[in-house]
Design goal:
Number of strands: 0
Oligomer: single chain
Radius of gyration: 26 Å
Largest sheet: none
Order of helices and strands: HHHHHHHHHHHHHHHHHHHHHHHHHHHHHH
Length: 478
């Protein structure tokens, strides 16, 4: 009935490896029931070969760290991975980021070896800023101070080295280590160098605020469109569609409409995108026709901008057009269905459900178009969507999409509280664990035991612990 997932290195969902790669609660439970060697091998594979479709958005580190503790897994393979020769050849964060985050959580749980590995990698590894950020929120001042001289050795005492040091200090996600080193009383030369770098970083930020590069008061519509075109011509390209549209909202008057219509109807891609978005956000009478024309343009940037502009439109006329376009099998049809999912009424439920089925069948369980449709069938309480939502929950490699499917199931599936809500308590995503804690039936002994553990877990998010404690309180509804 459904298309198979795209080949991404993700194992089938019915296997232990596939469950752990997806970060599903069942993966955690199956790992504890499996032979230890098999479970440890699958866990190590996940940590050393990041399975996340979007490593910047999805969470796995706490999920894997907790499992390392439960299985008593050795950290030797992580150390070998971090200090492999590939670390110098491949400087990308994706290779080591997940392993470093797992070590950070293990350090929070008191694994001394994890803290030592982070310190060692911070002074020897290529992705040292990530390791330093992990240490910043977990290590003591006494533990951080000895690392200062070795970190500063990365920056030679030259003009280029000082500039690189200033950039590193200014752009650090967690500034605490730099502050600790700049205040170290036993290393005056280090204090002097870092104090200067901190001051230069503050001065750089101040200068940027004084010299904004965007539009200024007095600009015209033509100036804003020219600014959008200038960004398009730069290397790397700066796509200024959204900020240019906001500026047009501030400078454009009724007398500028002919020029905006002309720009939105053709011409330079950047100017066309900005003008089209401006007209769409203001519900111009010609906006829908311009969107339909731009969707057929040969330039992919223009097509994408047209879909974005249409997705931001509102009003009865827009919804009527969306109902007409939602039956299309192209990108405009998917965007129209997503608009109905967000803003439609109960009468649009069949259209949204049909679009969801079509997207899953044609594009699989991991396509980016699924999220608004999944949210839509939940918002509209489409009970007939429960089977496809359960399929997405089990199959998608995206833990974010699984969380949205779970929330939609909570609204559409009467059996959710005693079924998948239990599994959600072990999920890798905080929001999904929170949903499980809110919805699960406390008559399930596994659920009660898990909630008691989450309530006392120092690494669990405060929102989850608060809900769990409320559910466990005497007299709370089950």
């Amino acid at each position: 009935m459904f298309a198979s997932p795209t080949e991404t290195g993700i194992a089938p969902s019915g296997t232990l490896l596939g469950l752990l790669q997806r970060g599903r609660g069942d993966g955690w439970l199956h790992a504890l029931a499996a032979p230890r060697a098999e479970a440890v091998a699958a866990l190590e594979h996940c940590v050393l070969h990041d399975p996340r479709p979007d490593w910047q958005l999805e969470r796995r580190s706490l999920y894997y760290a907790r499992l390392y503790l439960e299985l008593g897994a050795d950290l030797g393979p992580i150390a070998e991975h971090l200090f492999h020769p590939d670390d110098a050849a491949r400087g990308d964060e994706e290779r080591t980021g997940l392993a470093l985050s797992v070590l950070g959580h293990l350090a929070t749980y008191g694994r001394g070896q994890a803290l030592r590995l982070l310190r060692d990698y911070a002074v020897r590894g290529t992705n040292w800023p990530w390791a330093l950020d992990e240490l910043a929120v977990r290590d003591t001042d006494a533990g951080l101070r000895p690392l200062g001289p070795r970190i500063l050795d990365r920056f030679p005492r030259t003009a280029e080295g000082d500039a690189a040091l200033t950039d590193a200090v200014r752009d650090s996600f967690e500034p605490r280590p730099w502050r600790v080193w700049s205040e170290d009383p036993d290393r005056p030369a280090q204090r002097e160098r870092l104090t200067a770098a901190l001051e230069r970083g503050d001065f750089d930020r101040w200068q940027r605020q004084l010299r904004p590069s965007g539009p200024r008061p007095g600009w015209s519509v033509a100036s804003v469109l020219a600014w959008a075109e200038d960004g398009y011509a730069q290397t790397p390209r700066q796509w200024r569609e959204a900020p240019a549209a906001r500026c047009l909202g501030a400078v454009a008057g009724p007398e500028d409409r002919p020029a905006l219509l002309a720009a939105a109807g053709g011409g330079h891609p950047a100017a066309r995108a900005a003008a089209l978005r401006h007209l769409a956000e203001r519900g111009d009478a010609r906006a829908l026709a311009l969107v339909e024309s731009a969707v057929a343009a040969p330039d992919p940037d223009v097509r994408r901008a047209a879909l974005t502009a249409f997705s931001r439109m509102d009003g009865a006329r827009t919804l009527d057009q969306a109902r007409h376009w939602a039956t299309r099998g192209d990108e405009l049809g998917i965007t129209a269905a997503a608009l109905l999912a967000r803003r439609g009424t109960a009468t649009d439920a069949p259209r949204v459900l049909a679009a969801l089925h079509r997207a899953v069948c044609v594009r699989g369980a991991d396509s980016r178009e699924l999220r608004p449709l999944v949210e839509g069938v939940g918002r509209l309480c489409v009970t007939a969507a429960a089977p496809v939502l359960r399929h997405l929950y089990r199959e998608t490699p995206s833990s974010q999409l699984r969380g949205h499917a779970a929330r939609a199931l909570a609204a559409t599936d009467p059996g959710f509280a005693s079924g998948l809500a239990v599994e959600c308590l072990w999920d890798c995503e905080e929001e999904t664990r929170l949903l499980g804690a809110e919805c699960v039936s406390t008559g399930d002994r596994r659920a009660l035991a898990r909630m008691r553990r989450l309530a006392s877990d120092p690494a669990e998010q405060a929102g989850v612990r608060s809900v769990v404690r409320g559910r466990l309180a005497p007299g709370a509804a089950g």
